[in-house]
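Researcher: Quick test of sequence recovery. Tokens follow.
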């Protein structure tokens, strides 16, 4: 560790000031991410298979698997739905849902409310969203723990401070990833009622 610190110190001293500042910011962000994702919470997964083969109740054209507690994980990454957002089976034991790289600009409102499923993790990163629909997470106040929205367009030159009421009262939310959105800050009251979140908030430095 001492040798690593000495080597990094030598490299930093030889860098020009702008590059040195950029590297320091990257190291700080890396430290934050490592702190927020403890190795003891590393996820394990079963083999993903088409959801139609996984269960007759799940009709989405995605891949399904079981997580570490045998709850269902649905992976719809790069899957563009032909029509409306599908309604997932009522009260099915689904804890994780991901749909990255599909070009979402605005998610439909209440997409999971009618299903009444115990979702803990949602991942809509790597899309094109500039804002969040109202009442997006209705019905998940008592279950949702992790939200991933990185690599979207939630911050831009006209509105670099992110504002929404969709995270309020998600009392078990502990991870909120807003990194790589061009944000310079978040509005006051953005996470009111998120008792477990504390300072666990990713943002681009």
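Model:
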């Amino acid at each position: 560790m001492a040798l690593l610190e000495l080597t990094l110190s030598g490299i930093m001293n030889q860098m020009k000031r702008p590059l040195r500042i950029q590297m320091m910011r990257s190291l700080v962000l890396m430290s934050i991410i490592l702190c927020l994702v403890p190795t003891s919470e590393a996820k394990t997964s079963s083999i993903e298979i088409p959801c139609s083969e996984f269960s007759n109740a799940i009709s989405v054209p995605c891949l399904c698997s079981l997580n570490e507690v045998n709850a269902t994980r649905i992976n719809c990454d790069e899957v563009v739905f032909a029509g409306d957002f599908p309604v997932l089976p009522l009260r099915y034991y689904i804890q994780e849902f991901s749909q990255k790289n599909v070009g979402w600009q605005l998610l439909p409102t209440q997409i999971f409310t009618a299903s009444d499923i115990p979702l803990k993790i949602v991942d809509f990163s790597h899309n094109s969203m500039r804002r969040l629909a109202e009442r997006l997470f209705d019905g998940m106040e008592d279950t949702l723990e992790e939200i991933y929205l990185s690599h979207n367009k939630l911050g831009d030159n006209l509105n670099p401070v992110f504002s929404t009421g969709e995270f309020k009262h998600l009392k078990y939310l502990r991870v909120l990833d807003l990194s790589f959105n061009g944000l310079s800050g978040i509005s006051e009251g953005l996470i009111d009622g998120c008792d477990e979140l504390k300072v666990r908030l990713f943002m681009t430095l």
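DSSP finds three helices and ten strands in the chain.
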